[in-house]
Fold:
Amino acid sequence: MPNKHMKAMVDTEDAPGGKCSPNPQDLRPSVFHSIKFFILCHSFLQLAQLMISGYLKSSISTVEKRFGLSSQTSGLLAAFNEVGNTALIVFVSYFGSRVHRPRLIGYGAILVTLAGVLMTVPHFISEPYRYDHTSSVDMPQDLEASLCLPATDTPTSAPSNSSCSGYTEVQHLTMVGIMFMAQTLLGVGSVPIQPFGISYIDDFAHNSNSPLYLGILFAVTTMGPGMAYGLGSLMLRLYVDIDRMPEGGISLTSKDPRWVGAWWLGFLISAGAVALAAIPYFFFPKEMPKEGHELHFWRKGLAVSEAPVNKGEDSSSEQNSGENPEKDGLAQIAPDLTVTQFIKVFPRVLLRTLRHPIFLLVVLSQVCMSSMVAGMATFLPKFLERQFSITASYANLLIGCLTIPLAIVGIVVGGILVKRLRLGPMRCGTLCLLGTLSGLLFSLPLFFMGCSTHQIAGIYHQPDAQPGLELFPGCMEPCSCPSDDFNPVCDTSTGVEYLTPCHAGCTRVVQEAPDKRQVFYANCSCVAGGGPVPAGSCDSTCSHLVLPFMILVSLGAALASVTHTPSFMLILRGVKKEDKTLAVGIQFMLQRVLAWMPSPVIHGSAIDTTCVYWAQSCGRRAVCRYYDHNLLRNRFLGLQFFFKTGSLACFTLILAILRQQNKEEGTKETIPSPGLQQQLLDSGPKKEPEESRV
Structure:
């Protein structure tokens, strides 16, 4: 060890309470030498970082409509931030404390800010959103562009096709490429924020205060995704071109399927919050004096909760002893390795860790659960919009106010049960099994809470529905309707929807609403009585089921979240003590590679297979206009059910292995032998079999 490092260690050990001996010029009070202020700053930073990471999921359907993306492409976009994150997260163990951690966190936050700003660039470089796809002129002509006119009077269909040029396609690819680049940069910037922040707190907080500080940090940061959905709910109520509104306003409401909210504004707000949170990190020192006192109210709590417990508390006893952790694990010896040596050693340690059957099964169960969470977080808002005919803003509000808070409650309840009941490995496995099984049972009624797609003239016909155009055969033959136009109208008397007023044979526009945002069309030859018919899609006949549906989803999420802490404890107690740090890192890495990256793409591909009508843009398939709701519900919820079943199967195998190991231990205890005693002595300290029962 270099002399300066040895001297620093001696100074630390000689100081009372393990406190570093600072230089005289550092004795003056500074807020940047307070670990409590660092925790405050880091809580705000992680909150803002998770908000900007989760914001895209709240506006995924809006981005699809704005840029003509399929669900598979949007799922890939949502998962792309994991690519940059996963590629670099392994090296966090290598760098450890040899870098200036606060400053590196600040640089990462700046990258996250740049990524957020970069995500908004496609909005500013693209042309204003034209929701009629037929004309770029003012509102009065927009309303009449979709009317039924004789073929000789409709020259407006030509510009739609003539706008498809090589420049248009290049511009589209450029905007999509910018968003993918921004997502990659977002993942790279997120790499140092959480690991370095947690290690910095653990290094310089008092040993007894560190769990409390980390608990406060996690409690604050878990609100980030909920705030992302809340922000999405607010922003999507605003029109996308709020910064460049056309003269006379727009004739759309947020319920119109062509409505596109101000998705880009949330990225600017989140990026601004991250930029503000990054400023203090450039003033924190590389090392600060270790906190020398214990919080008194925390000491009393520890005295009450830990008095009867002496066994199995290996991690806290090691911290309270004031000694440095063992130096034989990869995470501990990493600072002494070169990058090449670290890369060579890592695969061997990875394979050694994966040989533990309990560890492997727990990680597989968490991969299944994370796949379910990733798919639901990305596409649940879109599912609610399509299935129950609600706005994107209301869907985000339901998720942010119901599902995420109950999931956080589930995580907290799981931690309390493990702590208060002092659950061992067997009982932790049982709790995981019961939580997963309960969540699975709550998801069964969801398959029956929905309704079929309403009748769409010329596209989708319900077998038991009233005949649509058959009532008026040839009613739209005199019309020359644009093939790529989308301006739906609904015949409320029959529940039949038409792609455009032209497809309904309408020849006149009537604005009867007081705010002039709701448009009606009259003289419709395909509608009984000639109308008038309102613009917009027909409402779902089961929209009243959205609240019961979300309550069941939220309760299932809460029960599944109860397994978070006990499954984490199974990992910590199932590997060697020196491999614990790396095992947790491997767990998170495998979750990213096997769950968070592929799951949104898998869910998006499954959703695309249920599409019954695709919009065309310059000869290519763009956004899906209509889905088969029954197929959409069965395939989306079926994927969720599949991943929950996989997690349940893993926990069942874990319980079987634990029961078998308990039987073997009981047999060995009843028949002691010298060979067994020698084996226990060779395996390590006497207390290790009690800690590593798994």
Remarks:
- The chain has a mean pLDDT of 78.
- DSSP finds 28 helices and seven strands in the chain.
- The two ends are 36 Å apart (CA to CA).
